[in-house]
């Protein structure tokens, strides 16, 4: 014989919301797109670098040309945290 279980839902209970908003996370931006019917690539990145409590804009070179036809882009996390 099969057993039957009953589930009840309390409709008067208020949902539990977070007491504080989630912590803001800093991000780095590296974007690449293929264009000109596949014959070219456009790449864009930010130039901000931050370590611990200090940061600077227009400092980091995150889009680097290795040789003709070869570019490199990188991003990373703050290792001091």
Task: Summarize the structure in words.
This protein has a domain at 27-58. The chain is mostly beta strands. The chain contains no helices and six strands. It is 0% helix and 33% strand. The N and C termini lie far apart (58 Å). The strands form three sheets. A two-stranded antiparallel sheet has the order 1-2. Strands 3-4 form a two-stranded antiparallel sheet. A two-stranded antiparallel sheet has the order 5-6. The chain has strands at 30-35, 40-45, 49-51, 54-56, 63-67, 70-73.
Radius of gyration, whole Å:
25 Å
Total helical elements: 0
Biggest sheet: strands, sense, closure?
A: 2 strands, antiparallel
The backbone outline, from C-alpha atoms, is: elongated
Q: How far apart lie the N and C ends?
A: 58 Å
| Assembly form of the protein | single chain
Q: Which structural category fits the helices and strands? A: mainly beta
DSSP helix fraction? under 10%
- The H-and-E topology, N to C, reads as EEEEEE
Number of strands: 6
* Mean pLDDT across every amino acid position: 77
- Pick out the low-confidence regions: none
Main-sheet strand order equals 1-2
